[in-house]
Design goal:
Blueprint: H1 14-32, H2 37-44, H3 48-60, H4 73-86, E1 90-94, H5 100-118, E2 124-127, H6 131-135, E3 149-152, H7 165-175, E4 179-181, H8 192-198, H9 202-211, E5 216-219, E6 221-222, H10 234-237, H11 240-245, E7 250-252, E8 255-257, H12 267-271, H13 277-282, E9 285-289, H14 296-304, E10 310-314, H15 315-323
Parallel strand pairs: 1-10, 2-3, 2-5, 3-4, 5-9, 9-10
Antiparallel strand pairs: 6-7, 7-8
Helix pairs in contact: 1-3, 2-3, 4-15
Length: 333
């Protein structure tokens, strides 16, 4: 377990410092000392409700990271089988959590830890967007990599949610004190012609050039239900019926795919601004962080087409991916 995050002593008040010390003591007594919530409340003179609330806060804000060094044999077995079945260079499988949001968070944090071990000074990092990738920031060790840089590899949305492409890219850049590049344009253009016209702009052109030269790409994917933040946007929701008719089962970097992982024939795919999936295939380290039974079909489609080299998912999703016996899955296209 890492220590709780400190505060900036230059601006922290005495009350702030006292509150942080209480949080640190609660965390230590619970995670290291093995005390119950009632025992902690009695020892620190707090109510059990406050102890419970404090533990919930430090779990959700990343103040405490529990690093389990004991192997989970069933998850490790799934990882090896996923690598063999889909020709992956690596796979990480987390125990499935009953709450979808918590499951998503756990996958994101595991992907962040994987990324943390890969990042070296001088590398370029390309990131997508979404809550899963936002969660990965909690496991990225803050450090200075002056020769590295971060870029968004897909256009943005017209409203923020804490997990937009701009916010996610900025978060990762700040974590490693690196320069950040943005695709300062919408994810979908009104027409294919307007997309091509903007690509001639030197700023967008330079960022796209950066996107095609990243050493690591961290991406997630979406299904075709309202669970997907992308499906909730007006542009996609207005086209949902025709996307489904075209065979779309989900998206990767805003590109809608069919069950075999091929882009569907739909105008939105001609109007999307993102790193092409063929260029994603060429990235040295590409990580897909996604899970949940509702994303099973799109994850399988992405793996079948070999768009990514590493997968981070949950145990139930991993098992389901392996249940369908398709010998061709292990052959990269």
């Amino acid at each position: 377990m890492t220590a709780t995050k400190g505060t900036d002593n230059g601006s922290a008040t005495t009350d702030d410092i006292t509150a942080q010390q209480v949080r640190a003591r609660v965390a230590w007594l619970y995670f290291i000392g093995g005390l119950t919530q009632q025992e902690i409340a009695d020892q620190l003179g707090l109510t059990r409700l406050r102890v419970n609330k404090t533990l919930g806060q430090i779990r959700s804000d990343g103040s405490v990271v529990v690093d389990i060094r004991l192997p989970m044999a069933d998850c490790i077995d799934l990882e090896h089988r996923l690598e063999e079945r889909f020709g992956l260079e690596g796979a990480c499988v987390t125990p499935t959590l009953p709450d979808d949001a918590e499951n998503q968070r756990a996958i994101g944090e595991t992907a962040g830890a994987l990324l943390d071990g890969l990042l070296q000074n001088g590398m370029g990092l390309g990131v997508g967007w979404g809550k899963t990738l936002t969660a990965g920031l909690k496991r990225l060790t803050p450090r200075t990599l002056p020769e590295s840089w971060v870029t968004s590899i897909m256009g943005g949305l017209t409203r923020g949610s804490g997990s937009s492409t701009f916010e996610v890219a900025t978060g990762y850049a700040r974590a490693i004190s690196a320069e950040c590049w943005y695709l300062t344009a919408p994810l979908y253009f009104p027409t294919a012609q307007s997309r091509e016209a903007l690509l001639s702009h030197h700023g967008i052109r330079d960022t796209m050039r950066r996107a095609t030269s990243v050493d690591i790409a961290l991406v997630s994917c979406g299904d075709m239900t309202p669970r997907s933040l992308l499906v909730q946007t007006p542009t996609v929701s207005e086209n949902l019926a025709t996307l489904l008719e075209a065979g779309a089962i989900g998206d990767l970097l805003g590109v809608f795919l069919d069950a075999e992982g091929k882009p569907v024939d739909h105008p939105l795919n001609e109007r999307v601004l993102s790193l092409s999936l063929q260029n994603l295939k060429a990235v040295r380290h590409s990580i897909l962080a996604s899970g949940g039974s509702y994303k099973l079909n799109i994850i399988r489609a992405i793996l079948r087409s070999g768009y990514v080299k590493q997968l981070v998912t949950d145990q139930n999703c991993a098992a389901a991916l392996l249940r369908d016996d398709h010998p061709e899955d292990g052959k990269r296209q």
